[in-house]
Write a structure and sequence with these properties.
about 575 residues; 16 helices; disordered N terminus; binds flavin-adenine dinucleotide; five-stranded parallel β-sheet
């Protein structure tokens, strides 16, 4: 049933109505449904169409109609206790129709247990206890937050920059990934499939052998742009504003972002340098479920967006698409050299440069990287995996999250793990989630030994099974998660590291060139005034929460260092 339009609404022209994304509410009790729709309309009616249905079945029909018209659904609000389809069952089915829509369950206090279970079953975004009075406090902030997150995702896929390229081209993939991770609204056009892409190329006068090409909103055309060139033209990169800082942070993952938030909010002149895009590894996580305070989990890109906004609001300077390439010590000054010759001078430095994916060393993998083989979750590829057979290599939480995420898009997801079970490498909640998803298959004692290509992109994987036999299997995409290593070569000869490149800190540096009579602070490296936090530190925990904790703790130690220096 469509929401009963008021006189004003009736007068809106049809196009305007269609442009507004929908919020669909479902409840079998007419009075409650009317109250939900009324409150949603009051809070969000200007920007969204509020639609309602009296049962899960009717709501699914409504969603099919909306989709058939090519319109968007931003939010689903469902009552849990309904005859026939329960709220959770409805949301499971609705997820197949509108996977991007945010999902909220309305529950009575007695149903809290069902709501908590639904967090796993349907990737629920929030559960709301009835009654939600006053809506200004109980309903509007929650819905506003979910809609802002949805809007930022929707904006990323519409308008802005248009990127035209070949789907199976590493350069095209890297460009799309870079724009998505830096949250630049961009639309992807596949030159093989989209006639619009070919028309645009003809108008811009670009040859098909000069792809990928980025068409910017100001009309400029960048053929095969480098990330730095694109970042410069889009205003993502910025030159440092100051001559000298209290704190330079290298790396914009959770550790670096936390340090930026605490450093700036506690009065330190703080600048954070990030090589690619804020968020680090966490920014590539499809759903972080174990970060305290987010019972329904949150996506890595959401965490990165929130933390970046927070750091900026509190006064931290962010210098992105710039890489730290050397550290110099000059008296009490600490100097960081950047790619392109820039130099940052500071009293203290925090190295929070994390780790990068380890590459799979088997024939075909290097050649096909970006063309069917991807390291990390490569979330930008998810849509292209619709109904395809996707392989995920690795048995840790990151691989498990990716398998769950891709199962919502791909026809079939096969996980290849070398161990005999997932229990030693993956959290129990993820193992349970995976077991409950019918289109994920877990193959233990199995490994991919060759990647074969056709026309420049992945076609098949040669797989060795538990009995040593080999099979060649068609593969449309393969996502690799086989651990990670720090990239700290730029600190060679300056800061003490272990044999794998992880940075030593605190008591560990005493026998590794520590020059002072005082003890090093807990997160201080072998160079006084240079601190380390997060995954790049030797013996770190490799979790978002611990990286955030260390980033904030480092700032407190930096205060002590500055006070005594
Ligand atoms: C797919 C995936 C899913 C995950 N899921 C979870 C989860 O659910 N829960 C959990 O707790 N943990 C999870 N993790 C682990 C978690 O993301 C990491 O422990 C955490 O991100 C570490 O934070 P960090 O700041 O130390 O480093 P990183 O996140 O690695 O960030 C380091 C940053 O430094 C930048 N950088 C590196 N070198 C330089 C340089 N020289 N100059 C400038 N910048 C540089 C990098 O580009 C990067 O952005 C996941 C990891 C992955 C990959």
């Amino acid at each position: 049933m469509l929401d009963t339009p008021g006189t004003d609404t009736e007068q809106r022209d049809d196009q305007d109505r269609r442009r507004r994304p929908a919020i669909v509410a479902v409840d079998d009790e007419p009075a409650v449904l009317a109250a939900v729709a009324r409150d949603l309309r009051r809070g969000f009616g200007e920007r969204y169409r509020i639609m309602r249905a009296g049962s899960g079945g009717d709501a699914l029909d409504l969603l099919k109609q909306i989709r058939a018209r090519g319109e968007q659904v931003a939010l689903l609000v469902a009552d849990q206790r309904m005859p026939g389809l329960s709220g959770t069952d409805y949301l499971v089915r609705a997820r197949e129709l509108v996977p991007e829509a945010k999902r909220v369950l309305l529950t009575a206090y007695a149903d809290t247990e069902a709501a908590i279970q639904a967090i796993n079953e349907v990737s629920l975004d929030y559960y709301l206890l009835k009654p939600w009075d006053p809506p200004e406090e109980q309903l509007f902030p929650v819905v506003e937050d979910l809609l802002t997150t949805w809007e930022s995702g929707a904006a990323l896929e519409s308008g802005g920059v248009r990127v035209i390229g070949h789907r199976y081209s590493k350069q095209s993939h890297d460009l799309r990934d870079f724009l998505a991770r830096n949250r630049v609204p961009a639309r992807w056009l596949d030159v093989e499939r989209d006639s619009e892409a070919r028309e645009l190329l003809a108008v811009a006068g670009v040859d098909a052998d000069r792809l990928p090409v980025a068409l910017l909103e100001d009309g400029s055309v960048l053929e095969r742009p480098t990330m730095l060139e694109l970042a410069g033209r889009l205003g993502i990169t910025a030159e440092p504003a100051g001559d000298h800082y209290d704190l330079v942070i290298v790396g914009g993952g959770p550790a670096g972002l936390a340090a930026a938030v605490y450093g700036a909010s506690e009065g330190l002149r703080t600048v954070m340098v990030e090589r690619e895009a804020p968020g680090g590894q966490a920014g590539q996580s499809s759903r972080i479920e174990n970060y305290l305070g987010f019972p329904a989990g949150l996506s890595g890109s959401d965490l990165a967006r929130r933390a970046t906004d927070q750091a900026r609001r509190l006064g931290a300077e962010l210098v992105t698409v710039q890489e730290a390439v050397a550290l110099r010590v000059e008296g009490s000054g600490r100097l960081i050299e950047l790619t392109g010759g820039g130099l940052l001078s500071a009293n203290t430095v925090l190295v929070a440069s994390g780790v990068s994916y380890r590459q799979l060393d088997a024939p075909g993998f290097a050649e096909l990287t970006g063309a069917g083989i991807y390291y990390g979750a490569a979330l930008t590829e998810a849509r292209a995996c619709q109904d395809q057979h996707v392989f995920v290599i690795g048995g840790a939480n990151s691989a498990g999250q990716a398998a769950v995420y891709f199962s919502g898009y791909a026809g079939r997801v096969t996980m290849l793990i070398r161990a005999d079970s997932l229990t030693r490498s993956m959290s129990q909640y993820l193992i349970e989630q995976i077991a409950a998803i019918p289109n994920i298959e877990v193959r233990t004692l199995s490994e991919a030994i060759v990647a074969e290509g056709e026309d420049g992109h992945l076609r098949a994987l040669r797989i060795r099974g538990p009995d040593g036999s080999e099979t060649l299997e068609r593969a449309d995409a393969c996502f690799v998660f086989i651990g990670a290593a720090p990239r700290t070569d730029w600190l060679e000869g300056v800061v003490a590291r272990d044999e794998r490149g992880f940075i030593l800190a605190g008591p560990d540096v005493r026998d590794h060139g520590w020059p002072l009579s005082r003890d090093p602070y807990a997160l201080e490296t072998s160079v006084p005034g240079v601190f380390v936090a997060g995954d790049v530190r030797m013996r770190s925990i490799k979790r978002v929460a611990s990286a955030v904790g260390e980033g904030s703790m480092a700032v407190s130690l930096i205060h002590e260092y500055l006070a005594s220096a």
